[in-house]
From TrEMBL, chains A, B:
InterPro entries: AsnC-type_HTH_dom, Dimeric_a/b-barrel, PF0864-like_C, Tscrpt_reg_AsnC-like, Tscrpt_reg_HTH_AsnC-type_CS, WH-like_DNA-bd_sf, WH_DNA-bd_sf. Residues 1-24 are annotated as: Disordered. PANTHER family: LEUCINE-RESPONSIVE REGULATORY PROTEIN, TRANSCRIPTIONAL REGULATOR AZLB. Keywords: DNA-binding, Transcription, Transcription regulation. The lineage of its organism: Bacteria, Bacillati, Actinomycetota, Actinomycetes, Kitasatosporales. SUPFAM superfamilies: Dimeric alpha+beta barrel, Winged helix' DNA-binding domain. This is Transcriptional regulator. It comes from the Bacteria.
Length: 172, 172
DNA sequence: GTCGACTGCTGCGGATTTCGCAGCGGTGAT
DNA sequence: ATCACCGCTGCGAAATCCGCAGCAGTCGAC
């Protein structure tokens, strides 16, 4: 039950999530609207969403389940790390020699590293670390990240104050 | 089958969320466990959470409502922006002369800017911009951010590939 | 063209969950 | 001791979730 119909459909019916070349599904307007509803409130009832986007409760439920299965979105609780006991966060800019992606994978495997992105510019990788205190952060940066073979240099930006953190993509 | 004796509330009954000096609530182990459950699945039923943390369904519901009201957490859908039609993202490092916080506030007001943090290090502010295409990104950086009075310089890191994006704080 | 397979939507009951409220016990202040 | 407050429990009613059967539209094959 995991069919991947690779076809181009023009009109209406099974166009909610078409696969594109790179494997990331293409979303139609209705799925986008559903996501938008759930970005406002992740627990909003399916029937209410259906009324908002013009679909039945069951249809919304099936679409949401599919979006979750495909990994397009996830419905989760997000918090301010400070209130859950993580007092030190930092963005770490990393320069790499050799294979950037393998370094990025190594960072991804670290539980303290919550965000990893490969970039163009004067850093090859940006990674966000969430730590309990300074010692913990120091350990992550100096003993774990800089120890990775291929890491040429790092620069750290310790967070002083988080001003904005939104999850309203597509709501604009 | 995770039934744990997390709730030894013999000691203290009304300690689920006490206010500390700076106004951010202090969370006890049970609330943390609830958040953890909702980080795994934001739609998990209250009864299931209650079974996991050792509370009744109604108690979990009241706690969750309180956590939401206090702004400690929010339950939302999160997506990979690429799949929802935003093809260009960038982290922007900003140097400021004068009041850093007022610049940060101005950035916060921009809908394209999804993340703003004041930092120590060679940037005063890091901001993440989510845009539809290169033109849009260029407009945000050159015409809007650099136009802010007090912005001395900016440096951009265009995202090539998002490798990790987690919301599992406290799950470790 | 018809046929068949596939996909997505609807509508429907039954099971489950959510919701509101009254009551209870522990804590701290008066 | 008394009182007010707060969090937890338990319970019935309402709303929601869930699975399933049926229908309609598209696509590919013949």
């Amino acid at each position: 039950m995991h069919s991947e119909g690779v076809a181009s459909r023009s009109a209406d019916q099974r166009d909610s999530a078409r696969e594109s070349r790179n494997g990331t599904p293409q979303l139609d307007a209705v799925s986008l609207a559903i996501i938008q509803q759930l970005q406002e409130d992740g627990r909003r009832p399916y029937a209410a969403i259906g009324k908002a986007v013009g679909l039945s409760e069951a249809a919304v439920r099936q679409r949401v389940q599919k979006l979750l299965d495909q990994g397009v979105m996830q419905i989760v609780a997000v918090t301010d790390p400070l209130t859950v006991g993580f007092r030190r966060q930092a963005m770490i800019g990393i320069n790499v020699e050799g294979d950037v992606e393998s370094i990025a994978d190594a960072l991804t495997a670290m539980s303290e590293v919550e965000y990893v992105v490969m970039t163009a510019g004067s850093f090859d990788i940006l990674a966000e670390a969430v730590c309990e205190d300074d010692d913990h952060l120091l350990d992550v940066i100096n003993r774990r990240i800089r120890a990775l073979p291929g890491v040429r240099s790092t620069e750290s930006f310790v967070y002083l104050k988080l001003k904005k953190q939104t999850y309203m993509w597509g709501t604009r």
